[in-house]
Amino acid sequence: MNGVIQKVKPLDGFILEVVFTGGEIRHYGCRHLIDRYPVFNAMVQDPEIFRHPQIVSGGYGVIWNDDLDVASEEIWENGKVVMVCG
């Protein structure tokens, strides 16, 4: 992995736009998490939850609450590169 998460922004369709320290921007779709893990259904029931992601201390993941999180490694490996800066 080339960096840790610097910024995260929720997009329509349960997609996160994630900026890593190396300047790379990736889009990570969370729909498969909703389909696979029942706890993520909370985002469908209350879409406002998805709109407020936070970066885990140190930049090693994204968290919404105590039950909902995604590791930076997962986002790096499975996100789609949309831009490389620097």
Keywords:
86 residues, alpha+beta, NE0471 N-terminal domain-like, four-stranded antiparallel sheet, three-stranded antiparallel sheet, 3 helices, globular
Would you kindly provide a brief summary of this structure?
The protein has 86 residues and is of the alpha+beta class. It is built from 3 helices and 7 strands, in the order E-E-E-H-H-E-E-E-H-E.
Topology:
Layout: E1 5-11, E2 15-20, E3 24-29, H1 31-36, H2 42-45, E4 54-55, E5 61-63, E6 69-71, H3 72-78, E7 80-84
Antiparallel strand pairs: 1-2, 2-3, 3-7, 4-5, 5-6
**CATH-defined architecture:** 2-Layer Sandwich
The first-level CATH class is given as Alpha Beta
Helix fraction bin: 10-25%
- The ordered H/E elements are EEEHHEEEHE
Question: What this model shows, in words?
Answer:
There is one protein chain. The chain is an alpha+beta fold and 86 residues long. It has a single domain, classed as 2-Layer Sandwich (NE0471 N-terminal domain-like), CATH 3.30.2020.10. The protein contains three helices and seven strands. It has helices at residues 31-36, 42-45, 72-78; strands at 5-11, 15-20, 24-29, 54-55, 61-63, 69-71, 80-84. Strands 1-2-3-7 form a four-stranded antiparallel β-sheet. A three-stranded antiparallel β-sheet has the order 4-5-6. A hairpin with a 5-residue loop joins strand 4 (54-55) and strand 5 (61-63). The protein is globular, with a radius of gyration of 12 Å. The mean pLDDT is 93.
